[in-house]
User: What shape does this take?
Amino acid sequence: MTRATNRERPRRSTRLILTGSTATLLIALIGGAVSAHGPDPTTSGGSFGQNQELGFRWRSGSEPSGPIKSAIKSAAADVATTRASRAATFTYDAGGDNLIGYGAGATCGVNGLACYTRSAPNGFSMWLREQGHVFDWGTLKWCQTYASPPRGCYDAETIALDEFGHVEGLDHHLNFADGSDYDEAVVQTFSRTKPSAGWNMHTFGVCDVATLQRQYDMATWTARYSTCLDLSTVFTLSASPATVLIGGSTTLSATLRVTDLDSYVRLGGNPISGRTVTLKRRTPGTSTWTTVGPMLTGSSAGTYVMTQELSSDQEYRATFNSTSKEGLRSSDSPVVRVSVIACHAIGPVNGTDAVCI
Assistant: This one.
């Protein structure tokens, strides 16, 4: 079973003025700063089952207070509504196998506000420190325990959501050095207090979701991929029939998928449905493409179709243009040629008796 402490608040320290490599080293030690970011890292120990339901109950003798119970239940609901994947879900169940405790018995190390254990796919446990716990930096205040939450309090729902993220297998997000992407993940090394930006996040951030999608897959084939991902896509395109009589018709069929790469984990090879796929054509030997229009949704996931009537040879390709709303790259299909024939006799063409002109 793996245990990780979380939500550690950095100790207050004397202001230092440093230069050169010394300052860089200090930032690396206390801030976790990196030059780039992406989906949250993952913890060891594997994943739970897709859409696995994990029931939890309060630890006997260490039950949370009423406001903290409500915050934890709300965080569990936040998981279900914002996971955007087939990640596990959490539900309060008086007979549940997984224990959540609160108070002095918390095994969260010296500075941990909360902590967890996970043993996928079997279960988990969680602890939150009690209101008023004294750390070396000060006294813990949970915002939910006040009628009017004061400055410097921690939002218990945010902290519990962070811990549920860890249980799913998410490790701490690696932020930019300036912290400008803090709101892209709720699973953070350092929590923020009221009223700092991000102190009361009640949804998984886009980079939390990105890792949940990679580890647990998409909820549906029409669902949008997190903008914290950058996935290449691949097309196939075929024409049936590939040769027609003048004035005859052919059906162009395209299939759009996520490129099948190991680094994409469960997402590799996924069919991509519900997007705008545009069919284009050109006369063979020319370089200018003319837009025919959007293709219709096909009968199976990730497929798009359009029927064309031809009077001369044509080349076709399908195009998918990415948008800023999700983490997929644009792509074009290979070029497919459809030939048109004319003749002066009656005879079979593509298996049918047709009059040629």
Observations:
- Confidence is low (pLDDT under 50) at residues 1-36.
- The radius of gyration is 28 Å.
- The chain is about 15% helix and 30% strand.
